[in-house]
Every structure is written in C-alpha cells, then in structure tokens.
Amino acid sequence: MAITFLFCILCARFFYVQIAWSGELAGRAMDQWTREIPVVAERGLVTDRNGEILADNATAFTVFARSNAVKDVESTAKKLAEALETPYEEIYQKLTGKRASEITIARKVDKAAAERLEKLSLDGVYFSRDNNRTYPKNELLCQVLGFTSSDNAGAAGIEKYYDAYLRGTNGELLYETDLVGVRLNGAAAAYKPAENGYNLRLTIDSGIQTATESALKRMARQYNPDCAECIVLDPNTFEVLAMASVPSYDLNNVPRDDISLLNALSRNRVVCDIYEPGSTFKVVTSAADLEEWKRGNQAAFSPTHVFSSSRTRQVDGTTVKCWSNHANGKHSNQTLAEALNNSCNPCFTDIALSLGKETFYDYLNAFGFGKTTGIDYGGEASGMLLAETAVRNCDLARIGFGQTIAVSILQLACAVAASVNGGYYYEPHLVKEIYASDGYVLQQNEKKLKNRTVSEETSEALSSMLEGVVEKGSGKKAYIEGYRVAGKTGTAQKYENGHIATGRYVSSFVGFFPANAPKYLALVVADEPQGAYYGSVVAAPCAREIFLSIIDMKNIPRAAAE
C-alpha cells in the first residue's frame, strides 16, 4: 500500500515537472544558455503639416559587457577608455564594481567610436545600435515638441503625450553561451526584429512657427517682458498653426542639470498657464450681447444703443472706471462698436449686468471657460471661473471686461475663434496624422465640432466691429493696408495679495484676417513688459508682423483678403 502511494506521488511529481512546469523550466534553461543583445526600435519622426522634419534620429550605439566573459579586466578597461574617450577609472569601476551579468558601459556612442571598438574584438564586450533623438530646427517649437530621456522615452511635450506611438517595440539578437556567459563558437543566433515607432504629422506650419518666434523675440528684445507667448489658429478647424513662448531653449542642448531652469524653459505656458485676459475678453461679452439681441432678449443692447457717457459705474459699493477720463466729450454717445474701439470698461459692465448671471454664464460655458479644451497635450489648464452660485454683481461686472476670471491663452484663442468663425467651437489639436514609414495611416484627426456658440449673423456683425477696432480704434498698430485685419487689444493690471500690483501689467492682442472670412487668428500675450504696457503698443505690432509674414509666405494677394 505504501509503495503504491509513493509511486502515485512520484507520478504526480513527474507529471507536474514534465507537463505543468515545462514551460517555465524551458524558459529558465534558455535564459541560462543564451544571451541577448537588444535591437532598439527607431523612434518615430515628427514633422510639420508639410512634411518638414522637426524631430529625427541619429544612429548611436550602446556598449555593454558581460562581467563573467571579460578575461582581462585591466586591459579591457584601458582599451575601452581609449576607444570611447572616457576616463579609465570610470570604465574599470563599472567592470569590477557590479556583479550584474550585464553591465552598461556607455550609451549614445557615435559611429566612429563604435567602429574603433569593433576592431578591438574585446572578449565579453558587445554593442548594439541605439538612436539619438535630434531636432534639426534646434529651439523651434521647443515647448510643444518636448524632449526624450536618456533611454529615448518621451519626457515632455508631444514626445511624452504620444510616446506610446512614437517609441515602437524593441527587438533582440539571441545567441548561445556557456554557463559564465561566453559565446559558444559556431553557435547560431536568433533575431527578433524591432518594430519602429509611428510618425507624427503635426498641424504646425514650420514657416508660420518661425515667423511667430521671430516676432516674439523682437518684441521681447524691445520690451523685456518676463515672458511672452503666441498661438496662431486656423479658426475654421482649430488646428494649431503655431505655438510659441519666449524665453526658449535648444532641444539639442537640454539643460538637464538645472531642473528649475529646465522646468521654466520647457513649460508650455500657452496651454498650461492662466492669466486675467482683460479687454480681449470683451470679444466674448460682445458676442453674448449681440446673440441675445438677435434672439429678442429685451435685456440685451442693440448695435445702435448708446451707452451712458459716465466714466464710472457703481456696483455693490465698488467703482468700475474707464481708463479714459472722458474729458472733451471722449467716450460719449458710444455704441457697442465704439465701446470696443475705445475699450471702455463701464459699457461692458452694463452688458454683463443687464444680461444677468444665468444668461451670461450660459455663454461662458458655451465658450469653454472653466474647463479644458481637450487639446492633445498634457497638463492643460482649465482656467478659473467663479461658481455661478457664488457670483455677486460686482464679480459679474468685472468678468464682463475680463477681470475676476482667469483663462489660458489657448482657451481665449478658441473662444474668440468661435465668436468670429460663424459660431463653431471645435476641439483644438496639434497632431494631424499618425502614420507608419510605409505610408499606412493609423489615425487621422479631423475637425471635431464640440458645440455652437453664436449664430453666423452675430459672428459676422462682431467681426465687422472688430475690424473697426483695427481701422480706427485701439488696434491701429495691427492695421495692414489692403487686408481686412480685425482684433481687440488688452491691458490687464496684475494683482498681488489681493491688491493691484503697481506697474505690473499683462499686454495682449487677439486678431484675425480676413475679417469677413477668417483664415488666420493670432493671440499675443506679454507678461510685465517694460517701458510700455498697453496691448495696443506692445502686442498689436507683434501680431501685425506675424500676419505680414503669413501674407508673404502664402502669397496672399490683397483681393483674396478683401
């Protein structure tokens, strides 16, 4: 009986080892008797909308060693140091200081060094192909593209957001060894090829991006702001044509040893930061008023309504003032178009209060404030919008002219685009297409309508008023003879500890052309410019420079813009 029992146990154990455990044991045996050299997948390219390469790869190599297979450590360390131009002590420490079976000697080794190493045929030393990420345009689009880590993984920007598509899948080269890891003579090798990453085609136009960065840098040199940003959108699709911030940095020389500096320079403030927009927000307030008037809302003001000529409004014990003293008849008998020309805060206070909290907040929601736009980029800010239930009349009044609300540059650009493009709010995006090197298209990002904001009639009327701002109002420095440019300036005071900070302003201008059929929209923002601070002086000329560059590079004749 006992013999039968033991026999059954042995049979069960035999079955478990031979059948149930066979796969794991085979894997262990394979791991003991084989070594693998990684075959690194090539990271996908990133191009602009026209195929111009913005992120590329340069061939590099990784050198590693099998400590058990290195026969003469001192001699090997010396030869490696010479071939790689690396200190001998550093190589020797790697070869002797670790007991791991595989030791990484050096990464990102160039082809010349790899060729020198190959001629040495050092026992236990191997190398495999790697990729070194390169950026042909250096600092162009640096905050958007981002960069990769030392192991070629996306670490910031588009490189990080789309890393799963870009990185590909590594392969390997397997070969047989003895127990200490020395390759067997005549042993066959097995090859598992790498699968290269997908390529990205952005919505960015590198020509417009270059012009935008040049204009921002010129403005920064003249007015020395803490920082400056600009976004250029296609109002008909919300494709981002340019997105830039200054100061910037060289993507081929990332300051990795200074984390604070790197975080400051690589931060995409167009998407990730917020600010009080000031008078550029009056575009949204005007759109809400015109749409409600068209719908027959008696609380809305008609385009011919004449606002009170008083320089101030009293709301909840607070005083709203116009920047002008209204002397000599200035700002008297203003219609909505003239209030936009003059950027008169009291008129927009009247609009917000007359429409009321519920109606005005319906428009703020429709224009996307207080929530993200959904752009394909990490870390997007949602802005700051007071809860409707907590809003007092004095808050509502200030929101009407762009205070007591904080927005991202992207949010405001999208809202203005949805005000003047016929009332269509689309989801903005940076990537147009994800495709393989053989031409296979994995994904195409078409325009995606999120909601309607205002009617086409309202949009047309508002665009005409904003054209007047550039022709004869505060936006004159954005005027281009023969081209129908429209826009709105903004000059917002900054607050510190709940009080107005003396001498600290955010200057901005949002403009588009042609006014009757917008194709290009730009929002320029300068934080704390020096020497001048009005948006009409600092930001409007920068937008004009960008528009002139677009006109030149796209060969847009005057007739086509009228």
Describe the structure.
- It is built from 21 helices and 19 strands.
- With 562 residues, the protein is α+β, with helices and mostly antiparallel strands.
- The longest helix is centred in the N-terminal third of the chain and has 19 residues, at 2-20.
- Strands 2, 3, 4, 5, 8, 14 and 15 form a seven-stranded mixed sheet that branches. A five-stranded antiparallel sheet has the order 10-9-19-18-17, with helices on both faces.
- Helix 3 (73-84) packs across helix 4 (88-97), helix 12 packs across helix 14 and helix 13 packs across helix 18 (456-472).
SSE layout:
Blueprint lengths: L1 H19 L1 H12 E6 L6 E2 L5 E14 L6 H12 L3 H10 L4 E8 L1 H10 L4 E10 L7 H4 L11 H5 L1 H4 L4 E6 L12 E4 L6 E4 L3 H18 L3 E8 L4 E8 L12 H8 L2 H4 L9 H13 L17 E4 L2 E4 L14 H7 L2 H11 L1 H10 L26 H7 L9 H12 L3 E3 L4 E5 L5 E4 L4 E4 L3 H17 L13 E11 L2 E15 L6 E8 L7 H4 L1 H14 L4 H4 L1
Parallel strand pairs: 2-8
Antiparallel strand pairs: 1-6, 2-3, 3-4, 3-5, 6-7, 8-14, 9-10, 9-19, 11-12, 13-16, 14-15, 17-18, 18-19
List its salient traits.
562 residues, alpha+beta, seven-stranded mixed β-sheet, 21 helices, 36% helix
Low-confidence stretches: 24-34
Strand elements, count: 19
Helix fraction? 25-40%
Q: Structural class, from helix and strand content?
A: alpha+beta
Total count of helical runs of at least 4 residues: 21
Tell me the radius of gyration: 32 Å
Query: How far from one another are the termini?
Result: 104 Å
Instruction: Tell me the fraction of residues in β-strands, as a range.
Output: 15-25%
Please tell me what the overall shape is.
elongated
Mean pLDDT: 89
The major pleated sheet works out as:
7 strands, mixed
